[in-house]
Design goal:
This is SDR family oxidoreductase. It comes from Chryseolinea lacunae. By secondary structure, the protein is α/β, with parallel strands linked by helices. 37% of the residues lie in helices and 11% in strands. The protein is built from 10 helices and 7 strands. The longest helix has 21 residues.
């Protein structure tokens, strides 16, 4: 039986006549199936921003089911956060940290409280975001613009900066972008711009951290049914939300969470700087 081990760089030149023979290759390619099992995050600690509801809640619940202890940072949605905590604690420990991630001091506090409780951070999910629909660029005030960037991208920098000293080789960072980063949005211009910044942040950080053994990837969801949608759009638009994608429906948070699990665990060991696109079939070429 072929023994699995840590993959090594190929440094010795070698050639074979076509079509080639695997048994003669040095090293022999590792073709043994990985052991996909429950408990993929056993012993891990995950910090999730915006984990009180929507995609963040689904990710927290799935991570907990797979063995991770979970810290959740959220703004002020206390009832939602308590329900998420209740669901997570069916499986493992959960820490709730309320406050405004637009403030760098709070971002540092979130990390400090997580480490105080759990001693480390193995998985960081940057997920919190907001948006406001405006039909014209001229309608986006400076106040809204600053608020959107302060909420959607600045905390990704600040939380990650604070978390990195507590992350070891083998840790994983997963950032939430959006399909709007790839195809734009005529009514969410500032939001789509922050999501594009998250794509660039993810790719740049992945290159920066690769030698430290920390992988950085992202998820770019399409239309997902979350409180952000219910609180952002007019009733007529909400009634048709998601109907314009090939699957003709909005996705559910539970359908998105497995993408985060894949990127957080060793199943994606050969991936960094990449994005997954659970978006109902829209082709974005990104």
């Amino acid at each position: 039986m072929q023994k699995q081990g840590k993959p090594k760089p190929l440094r010795k030149p070698q050639a074979q006549p076509r079509p080639g023979h695997q048994a003669s290759m040095k090293p022999v390619p590792d073709s043994m199936p990985r052991k996909f099992r429950q408990g993929k995050l056993a012993g891990k600690v995950a910090l999730i921003t915006g984990g009180d509801s929507g995609i963040g809640r689904a990710v927290a619940m799935l991570f907990a089911q797979e063995g991770a202890r979970v810290a959740i940072a959220y703004l002020n949605e206390h009832a939602d956060a308590r329900e998420t905590k209740r669901q997570v604690e069916v499986h493992t420990e959960c820490l709730l940290i309320a406050g405004d991630l637009r403030k760098e001091t709070h971002c540092k506090k979130v990390v400090a409280e997580t480490v105080k409780r759990f001693d480390k951070i193995d998985i960081l999910v940057n997920n919190a975001a907001l948006h406001y629909e405006k039909q014209k660029l001229e309608e986006i005030s400076s106040k809204q613009l600053i608020n959107t960037f302060s909420s959607n991208i600045f905390p990704y920098f600040w939380v990650t900066q604070a978390a990195l000293p507590h992350m070891r080789k083998g840790s994983s960072i997963v950032n939430t972008s959006s399909v709007t980063a790839y195809r734009g949005s005529d009514a969410l211009i500032d939001y789509a711009s922050t999501k594009g910044a998250i794509v660039s942040f993810t790719r740049s950080l992945s290159s920066n951290l690769v030698k430290r053994g920390i992988r950085v990837n992202g998820v770019a969801p399409g239309p997902i049914w979350t409180p952000l949608i219910a609180s952002s759009f007019k009733p007529k638009k909400i009634a048709k939300f998601g109907s314009d994608v090939p699957m003709e429906r909005a996705g559910q948070p539970a359908e998105i969470a497995p993408s985060y699990l894949f990127l957080a665990c060793e199943d994606s060991a050969y991936m960094t700087g990449q994005f997954l696109h659970p978006n109902g079939g829209e082709i974005v070429n990104g």
